[in-house]
Design brief:
There is one protein chain. The protein has helices spanning 20-25, 40-54, 75-87, 102-114, 128-134, 172-189, 191-199, 201-205, 209-229, 244-253, 260-277, 283-292, 307-316, 344-354, and strands at 2-3, 10-14, 33-39, 60-66, 95-100, 120-125, 139-144, 147-154, 159-163, 320-321, 324-325, 327-332, 335-339. The chain is of the alpha/beta class. Strands 1-2-9-6-5-3-4 form a 7-stranded mixed sheet, with helices on both faces. It has a two-stranded antiparallel sheet with strand order 7-8. The protein has a two-stranded antiparallel sheet with strand order 10-11. Helix 2 (40-54) links the parallel strand 3 and strand 4 (60-66). 47% of the residues are buried. The mean pLDDT is 94. The structure holds nicotinamide-adenine-dinucleotide and zinc ion (ZN). Nicotinamide-adenine-dinucleotide binds next to helix 2, helix 4, helix 5 and strand 8. The site of nicotinamide-adenine-dinucleotide has 27 residues, from helix 2, helix 4, helix 5 and strand 8. GO terms for molecular function: 3-dehydroquinate synthase activity; metal ion binding; nucleotide binding.
């Protein structure tokens, strides 16, 4: 268990759901209604198991499931959940459990932040991205009018319970997509963790449970450290955007047909390339970083991009401040910095590095 001093909640790492009820008893569920919020895929895989565990342990239990997919991370789903909670007479003392990936976590957190001006919620993340990244840090919200995460709130869960065994049912693309954020955590903050990932890459690909647990735990520790220093994103937290500046631009230009992690991998390769060109990384370090994405089926080059369009999208991203891009580069492996001196030419060179032309 990691105990947070500032945003005060426990993070439990486990290979099953055995301890979940014990942990929830710490939140006095016997006197509270509990609503599990989940999506259609996760409901069919783990919904019954969680509902069975809750049997007889809380005042009342309910399950709300919405169709899986980012396209449902909307205010309309939020409204459906409010209606359901009102029907079930949920009051401010009751509790929500977010059982699912980042979409479920973001929506449930937002509902928890706003329903009756705030009720408690617990994160039970079930994707690698959600376990290693999105369930930590208190960002909640939904997409609006085609804009990602346009409406939201910073709101902390009361507990995060990670069962790494559920990662075994994730499809390969989803699993590897989450890995890109884990690599990012090593690269920006912890060179020793990066080396560990390099040494264990085949066990990770095999989804060895012990290795996954250690990986998720170490990844969360890094994210937690960064967000605790800067809970509302005024400074240090920007380092988490490593790989995301160009990554988001590619994500948009490809109309979200690539996964977020695939775009982060491409963005990370581009940012590592610029770090090499700034003489911070050696050529060997750059190539090692780039090639590490390959066993995880993450792309290191991409066909059919328009570099000028991506440059434009990069500059219109929210990381722009006073006309200069806040670019995150690597001073060395394990140490990222904010750099405002990345030129258009640097970006175009990095894009030609990742642009695959036959
Ligand atoms: P997701 O929640 O859509 O899950 C991906 C798919 O996997 C879904 O179809 C889901 O039903 C399925 N799934 C979930 N768990 C499973 C399991 N154990 N076995 C089999 N299938 C399972 O996507 P995601 O990648 O987890 O999250 C992406 C979302 O997270 C985006 O909306 C993004 O904006 C958000 N995000 C939030 C933060 C944050 O700080 N709050 C950070 C990064 C990303
Ligand atoms: Zn990300």
């Amino acid at each position: 268990i990691l105990y947070n001093k500032k945003p005060c909640y426990d993070i439990v790492f486990s290979a099953d759901f055995q301890r979940l009820i014990h942990e929830l008893k710490g939140l006095e569920i016997e006197s509270r209604r509990v609503c599990v919020v989940t999506d259609s895929h996760v409901a069919s895989l783990y919904g019954d198991q969680i509902m069975d565990l809750l049997e007889g342990e809380c005042k009342e239990k309910a399950l709300f499931s919405f169709p899986a997919g980012e396209e449902n991370k909307t205010l309309s789903t939020v409204k459906d959940i409010y209606t359901f909670l009102i029907e079930k007479k949920f009051d401010r003392k009751d509790l929500l459990l977010a059982l699912g990936g980042g979409v479920v976590g973001d929506i449930t957190g937002f509902v928890a932040a706003t329903y009756l001006r705030g009720i408690d919620f617990v994160q039970i993340p079930t994707t690698l991205l959600a376990q290693a990244d999105s369930s930590i840090g208190g960002k909640t919200g939904v997409d609006f009018d085609g804009y990602k995460n346009m409406v939201g709130a910073f709101y902390m869960p009361k507990l995060v319970y990670m069962n790494v065994s559920v990662l075994k049912t994730l499809d390969g693309r989803q699993f590897y997509s989450g890995f890109a954020e884990i690599m990012k955590h090593g690269l920006i903050k912890d060179g020793i963790f990066y080396e560990w990932l390099l040494e264990n890459m085949y066990e990770i690909c095999d989804r060895n449970v012990d290795i996954m647990q250690e990986m998720v735990e170490r990844s969360c520790k890094i994210k937690k450290l960064v967000v605790e220093k800067d809970p509302t994103e005024k400074g240090e937290r920007a380092l988490l955007n490593f790989g995301h500046t160009i990554g988001h631009a590619i994500e948009k230009s490809k109309n979200f047909t690539l996964t977020h992690g695939e775009c982060v991998a491409l963005g990370a390769v581009a940012a590592a390339f610029i770090s090499w060109k700034h003489s911070w990384l050696s050529m060997e370090e750059y190539y090692e970083i780039r090639d590490m994405f390959v066993p995880f089926n993450l792309p290191i080059s991409i066909e059919d991009i328009d570099p000028q369009e991506i440059l434009k999208l990069t500059k219109s991203d929210k990381k722009m401040e006073n006309g200069s891009i806040k670019f995150i580069l690597l001073k060395k492996v394990g140490k990222a910095v904010i750099d405002r001196n990345v030129s258009d030419e640097d970006i175009l060179n990095a894009l030609s590095e990742i642009h695959y032309v036959e």
